[in-house]
Amino acid sequence: MKKVLILGVNGFIGHHLSKRILETTDWEVYGMDMQNERIVDLLGNPRMHFFEGDITINKEWVEYHVKKCDVILPLVAIATPSTYVKEPLRVFELDFEANLPIVRSAAKYGKHLIFPSTSEVYGMSRDAEFDPENSELVYGPINKPRWIYACAKQLMDRVIWGYGMEGLNFTLFRPFNWIGAGLDSIHTPKEGSSRVLTQFFGHIVRGEAISLVDGGAQKRAFTYVDDGVDALMRIIENKDGKATGQIYNIGNPVNNYSIRELAAMMLKLAAEYPEYAAGAQKVQIVETSSGAYYGAGYQDVQNRVPKIENTRQDLGWAPTTGMADALRHIFDAYRGQVAAAQALMD
């Protein structure tokens, strides 16, 4: 029976992963977060051990549980582009500095560290597919603080790799635009405060304009969260030690769409739901510049497609959820929250 420590257990990946673990295995979950609203329905399970805390404050609790558990997933991070631009130091302090002691504890106590890298580490790589073993990692100039997130994550990847050279059992995974219910709050009217799909969804619910940054031509490969969690479960199981020392892109190359196409798909689907149709009819598509939307320190990536051959082969995994089904699952999940989200206009 594995003991799995999830720091950031109330986050998007954390709560979906915890639910899957409790439903499909006999493993125990030890989780820490500053809130618990996404995992309330899991707290009654005797194999779910939750502690309300902060990794920057409750350091003794964290180290004790790293020592106690078999598998460590430090999922606490800031991952919204507007924050990279406006508060780069805050991003570095949490995403790198606060996570470094956890990495060191995992090495000290000989645990399997499963660390969330990011698809952003590839930066503006010109490769048609981003290859975890061969692609060059290309970032913009220092006056574009947007890259501090990718840079902090890349440095952590390199530190973890260095510990691996000294014996650390680690796996790095790079999520490519995972989407699903609970990604961010749709109750957030502020531009740039959540990731693109949730942002668009909130605008549709409230009948607000959707802003396409720099025309919305930039593409992303979207991955439904259930497919991502499937891969994570196999990494945690680590059958025959196959995942040790590996870097895995976890994404769906087939779901590669531009942001403009995403907006169009979401508006078309919204028209099929009585809860969303009225709001969708009011939505106008407007274009804005990245400077106006995010600030002068922003730079974007035009294409971001994962190469997933080693993920498929090592883990016996493949993404199975197409874009239409992924969006429908999300629209279904939020049907009961429409009134609350609409009230934000008042």
UniProtKB/TrEMBL annotation:
CDD domains: Arna_like_SDR_e. InterPro entries: Arna-like_SDR_e, Epimerase_deHydtase, Lipid_A_modif_metabolic_enz, NAD(P)-bd_dom_sf. It comes from the Bacteria. It holds the Pfam family Epimerase. Residues 4-251 form the NAD-dependent epimerase/dehydratase domain. Keywords: NAD. NCBIfam families: PRK11908.1 (NF008872). This is Bifunctional UDP-4-keto-pentose/UDP-xylose synthase. The lineage of its organism: Bacteria, Pseudomonadati, Pseudomonadota, Betaproteobacteria, Burkholderiales.
